[in-house]
Design brief:
This protein is mainly beta. The chain has a single domain, classed as Porin (Beta Barrel). It has one helix and ten strands; from the N terminus they run αββββββββββ. It has one helix at 2-9, and strands at 14-27, 30-32, 35-46, 49-60, 62-65, 71-90, 93-112, 115-135, 140-152, 155-167. Strands 1-3-4-6-7-8-9-10 form an eight-stranded antiparallel beta barrel. It is elongated. The protein starts with a helix and ends with a strand.
Length: 168
Amino acid sequence: MLGTAAQAQTRAPLYGELGYSFLELKDGGFKVKPHALRGIVGYEFHPNIAAEGMLAFGVRSDDFNDGAGTTSDVKLRHAFGVFVKPKYNFGPAEVFARLGYARVKVKFTDCDALGCASGSDSDGDFAYGIGANYNINPRMYVGADWMRLNKNDGAKLQGMTISFGYRF
């Protein structure tokens, strides 16, 4: 009976999250706010540290008008990354940081009076973030976090994510 009680208190080390991201891409005076669907799979090695893999896909593009007759439609094509997640529990709440690497690909379509041209750009960089989770029960939790996924050559991609997680 004591073994069963101790086992019930132990959290499952494998978990998954599904979240909706509100991103912001800035490059000089250019600023758009695309949205993405993000999934994370993690493994808790210790109560205060986990390793995570992330995959995100764009679900909504955003437009930018340069004022000179060119309109750009920008969408996150995909992003993936690997992270170390130091964390600390305060009862049912948890605060954490993410440190790692992310690679992003952005798709764009530029249109002016002469027509439209499409292209994409991809880049990888050091990525980091902070966030908090709230445990609904021992298996399920909700969370919010902010992450900077990329900052290279004057451009930066960052944003907030609201997520739901499940421990297996």
